[in-house]
Amino acid sequence: MQARRMGERAAVSLARLGGALGLVLGLSLSTAAANDFGAVICSDYIASATVGRLALAAPWSYAPDLQPVYKDAIGVWHEGLVYIVNRAGADNVQVLDPALSFATVRQFSLGPNRGLKHIAFVGDGTAYVSCYDTPELLHIDPVSGAVLHVISTALFADADGRPETSWLVVDGQRLFVVCERLDRNNWYAPVGDSYLLVLDLATRAWIDCDHAQPGVQGILLSASNPYCEPVREGERLLIGCAGNYTVADGGVDVVDLGSLSSLGLEVTEAQLGGDVVDLAAGAGGRRHAVVSSATFATSLKAYTPGGSVSLLHQSNGYHHADIAYDGGFQVFVADRRPGQTGIRVFDAVSGAQLTAAPVATGLPPAFIVLPPPAPVSAPDLVPATLALASPYPNPANPRSRIAFSAPPGSAVELRVVDLRGRLVRRAQVTAGASGHGTWEFDGLDAAGRPVASGVLSVVATGGGGYAARSLTLVR
Question: How confident is the model at residue 247 (pLDDT cuts 50, 70, 90)?
């Protein structure tokens, strides 16, 4: 089954935001990673799979084989625990505690042959689980494992009787469900139309998104086979659609959550140079995509809507299994290439690779699970390593203040670079006795010339770390 074989790689969770600690001077709030480590599911897709711990800051060390899981699994970090969805062939949820070296604290089955795909949590403490192999959506108690309600998705099925529902996104009182609609009798080829279904969480009834058509309709996507987990960007969802494999008929669709409609493709597969098989956000409006060529060789590419596409990393086979953005300055890539297996880290703004070689994971990495951020108050923190606040104001016209924290007395180099990595301006600032420092960028380059409008990156090094933030200059 082509789609299932292609599906033996994971996608990044839209709502997962972690990353570098950003400190804002004064009484303003910032965010810090809830943990300084994430989880990686590693698998041979045949018999063995384990979860290990990945340090999220340089030098990005990895502790492998902390907990066995099923060979085809994805994970979601929620309220201090990692929920592993052991998918087709296992159909259970395994709950791991990161504080206990990812020990399993509970595990429950949701019934055989359902082909569990994804889990999403809602405000009342319950959760929803999608089923790939049956026309059902499960409403569950994630503590006891009890199935509270079974919601039929049969009205969205194609001729094979199943709609192939997968990724889930919660938005207030609505649940968005990716509906692939693939023909199981034709090697899982897309039947022609795919949807984003919308469930009213209060009534557990499907919302009709197209009153001009009879019956209840989902949001018709602009391309078929929505293979990638959606990425949230404000009031929009970005969905990578692979279409027919090896055919340039897909791209990244933009769905407006207010109007419940597709706004069209912001980039096409023809522009990307292949099938889009994974998608992650990035700083400064950039996106990152794993693209598969006509010979199923994957590459990591970055693009901006309406702008250029750049190649960040190329492989000679189907080796890029997953990408995940930490919400700050890092993009993590699961690389399964033989002899170079491990996690690569890229700068989310410049695209530069930060790891000299992949961080070894033992078994090949398949899925990256990052923790969400936790709010902290800046005055309560004693800086132990370098952290960079978001420039203020941002956008700048043209001045912006750059604030950082670092060990008191440490020298910090601040660089402003463009999206091609070219140096625009450099400054050397020493952290004060409080561990804080500031520098005002006046919008001029090193020669005193005005810098053109566009997206820049502020990069800080020294003080025991590396950090970067995006800055938009508007004149």
Answer: very high
Q: How many CB atoms are closer than 10 A to CB 415?
A: 15
**Residue 8 Cα distances to 182, 277, 284, 363, angstroms:** 16, 11, 30, 14
pLDDT band per the 50, 70, 90 thresholds, residue 31: very low
Note the pTM of the prediction, 2 decimals. 0.75
Q: What is the pLDDT of residue 328?
A: 82
Average pLDDT over residues 174-193: 96
Domain region containing 44: 2-376
User: Residue 302 CA to chain centroid, in angstroms?
Assistant: 14
- pLDDT grade for 432, boundaries at 50, 70 and 90: confident
Alpha carbon 345 to its chain's center: 14
Number of neighbouring beta carbons within 10 Å of residue 225: 29
For range 372-401, the mean pLDDT:
69
| Tokens coding 301 | 């590419």
> What SS3 class is residue 378?
helix
Q: Are residues 33 and 136 in the same domain?
A: yes
Pick from 376, 408, 427: which residue ends a domain?
A: 376
- Residues 93, 142: Cα–Cα separation, whole Å: 9
CB atoms within 10 A of CB 410: 18
Residue 236 burial (C-beta neighbours within 10 Å; 0-12, 13-18, 19+) = middle
List the structure tokens of 18.
């972690």
Instruction: Mark whether 211 and 310 lie in a shared domain.
Output: yes
Distance from C-alpha of 402 to C-alpha of 471, rounded to nearest angstrom: 10
Distance CA 451, CA 424 (A): 8
Q: Measured between alpha carbons, how far is 190 from 158 in angstroms, rounded to an integer?
A: 10
Q: How many other CB atoms sit within 10 Å of the CB of residue 46? A: 7
